[in-house]
Write a structure and sequence with these properties.
The protein has 385 residues and is α+β, with helices and mostly antiparallel strands. Helix content is 52%, strand content 15%. The protein is built from eleven helices and ten strands. The two termini are 22 Å apart. Bound molecules: flavin-adenine dinucleotide.
């Protein structure tokens, strides 16, 4: 199918539909019951990790050659979408396992792949991705973390900020400057292990949403790692980091779709039950039009996301554009749809007694991470189809 512009690739196959059913029933039975508690207590969704691991859904993208499920990009999107429909924090388990390990999949040596992808596939370890720093967010190439060669070793020093699943993950893809003269071409990527001497973590950030997903700083204090932990050649780390984002922005689009679908599903049910003026509020055309708009935007976002997933699978030339477009559009839709869902529940929607309030808070991050939506527009403008 490679290189084929067949339209069927934009649509889920029967296997994809079957996968969706399996993930939906697992998510509803084993993840949804804990979603409100995970948010309220700001704790890691261990129940979700256990359930996803038991069903082999925690890192579906890992190739079969390394013991993984070898799921294609669309199947990975469907897993993340269905988990996010009930709990956005939990959907960051499969999503960030892909984000953290994709640099190794794309650019790592066979030895690195064997060493790090196999435990990830088995569920023994999780992976995080360390690009951002306190003073280098949108301008990630302005990073200061340094890696200096010392014989057969590299010594890393610096601070990485906003690292999802920091402290929980055993493995970290870390981008660091190896040649300060060359800016982005002087950045290299490394695998750092949680157990490496000199690695430590900051306090968990107190966030608006995705409260169950730990976000912490990662401190690298004279971390000495073997030279073969470099991912790809020296100086290619920034290119690998950007190539990774081309693929994984689609998983953030998937997360946004799932959050929006969860809010729409809840609102659809609520308007049938809630009565005002002697009838269900769903009988009012003003309410029906809101639901129609929410569904319409979500359908458009899903079509764009699945088109981007097909491009990711085929490594199409327009992947960079489509990945940015899908992430930007789907996250804006998620913000609109969840805000409208709160509106449809009136005062009740504004309380934590109903899930749409959490979904609205969770939706916001999808407009910010893996590049803000302003940055996505810069990426799109530079790569217009
Ligand atoms: C919960 C959470 C989890 C995260 N997880 C990870 C992770 O696992 N790994 C990781 O490496 N990073 C992670 N990040 C970091 C995230 O990717 C950055 O926060 C994001 O890229 C923005 O960087 P910044 O926060 O420094 O904002 P800034 O870059 O300071 O941006 C501030 C504002 O300025 C705007 N802006 C900046 N430059 C331009 C421009 N050229 N044109 C127009 N507008 C511009 C931005 O759009 C934004 O609105 C996470 C962040 C959060 C909040």
């Amino acid at each position: 199918m490679a290189g084929n512009k067949d339209f069927d690739l934009y649509r889920p196959s029967e296997e994809h539909d079957e996968l969706r059913k399996v993930v939906r029933s697992l998510a509803e039975a084993k993840i949804a019951p804990f979603a409100a508690e995970v948010d309220e207590e700001g704790r890691f969704p261990q129940e979700a990790l256990d359930a996803l691991r038991a069903a082999d859904l925690h890192a579906v993208h890992v190739p079969e050659a390394f013991g993984g499920a070898g799921a294609d990009a669309l199947a990975t999107v469907i897993v993340i979408e269905e988990v996010a429909r009930v709990c956005a924090s939990s959907s960051l388990i499969p999503a960030v396992n892909k984000l953290g390990s994709l640099p190794v999949v794309l650019s790592g040596s066979e030895e690195l792949k064997k060493k790090y992808l196999s435990p990830l596939a088995k569920g023994d370890s999780m992976f995080s991705y360390c690009l951002s720093e306190p003073d280098a967010g949108s301008d990630a190439a302005g990073m200061k973390t340094r890696a200096v060669r010392d014989g057969d070793f590299w010594v890393l020093n610096g601070v990485k900020r906003w690292i999802t699943n920091a402290g929980v993950s055993d493995f970290y893809t870390v981008m660091a400057v190896t040649d300060p003269e060359k800016r982005s071409k002087g950045i290299s990527a490394f695998v750092v292990e949680k157990s490496d001497e000199g690695v430590s973590f900051g306090a968990p950030e107190k966030k608006l949403g995705i409260k169950g997903s730990p976000t912490r700083e990662v401190y690298l204090d004279n971390v000495r790692i073997p030279a073969d932990r470099m991912i790809g050649a020296e100086g290619t780390g920034f290119a690998t980091a950007m190539k990774t984002l081309d693929h994984t922005r689609i998983t953030i689009a998937a997360q946004a779709l799932g959050i929006a679908q969860g809010a729409l599903d809840y609102a659809k049910g609520y308007v049938q039950e809630r009565k005002q003026f002697g009838k269900p509020i769903g009988d009012f055309q003003g309410v029906q039009f809101m639901l129609a708009d929410m569904a319409m935007k979500l359908s458009a976002a899903r079509a764009l996301t699945y088109q981007a997933a097909a491009a990711s699978e085929r490594l199409d030339a327009d992947l960079t554009y489509l990945g940015a477009a899908a992430k930007c559009f789907a996250s804006d839709v998620a913000m609109e749809v969840t805000t409208d869902a709160v509106q449809l529940l009136g005062g009740y929607g504004y309380t934590r007694d109903y899930p749409v309030e959490r979904m609205m808070r969770d939706a916001k991050i999808t407009q910010i991470y893996e590049g803000t939506n302003q940055v996505q527009r810069i990426v799109m403008a530079r790569n217009l189809p």
